[in-house]
Amino acid sequence: MMSDVAKDRTAHSVKKKGSVSPISCHEFRRRELHGRIKDCLSTVSYMDEPSLRDDASRRTVQMENTYQLGPTKHFPVFIVNHILKDVLTSYLQEEQYEPELCRQMTKTISEVIKAQVKDLMIPRYKLIVIVHIGQLNSQSILIGSRCLWNPKSDTFSSYVFRNSSLFALANVYAVYFE
């Protein structure tokens, strides 16, 4: 049988290092007092040194002010339009509209577009890529978007693709990060 001091040390060290099994310290003592459990081993489900975790969270990179309020290189809308056209055409040229397929294609196409635009390495621009795919069936659709931005530095690029059974709209919004 463990002494009370040893139990307190064990409970304190386990509490410092992470969460314990479903029996908490209070339940352990309560059950021991009622005579149900005399020896109990608890397992630690998460172990981490608190000092290491605290040091990692305190390490922040301090950057000096650049005082740069405008972009040195503007967003190349013309090049991004070509990227949108190439990606939408290559992925959707021969496809027929199927809801499940198109749901996955919107995710895939938006990731491909984002990766290709990031490869242009335009500094200090945040990118938002939105792709819509729908069935082409003699209907109309209105898609609107609003954003608060600076018209001198922020811009967008858009392309609409159509084949015999579907349409696709891809937008890339480029917002300058001051």
UniProtKB/TrEMBL annotation:
One of its GO terms (biological process) is microtubule-based movement. One of its GO terms (molecular function) is dynein intermediate chain binding. InterPro entries: Tctex-1-like, Tctex-1-like_sf. It holds the Pfam family Tctex-1. GO terms for cellular component: cytoplasm; cytoplasmic dynein complex. Belongs to the dynein light chain Tctex-type family. CDD domains: DLC-like_TCTEX1D1 (cd21458). It comes from Rhinolophus ferrumequinum (Greater horseshoe bat). This is Tctex1 domain containing 1.
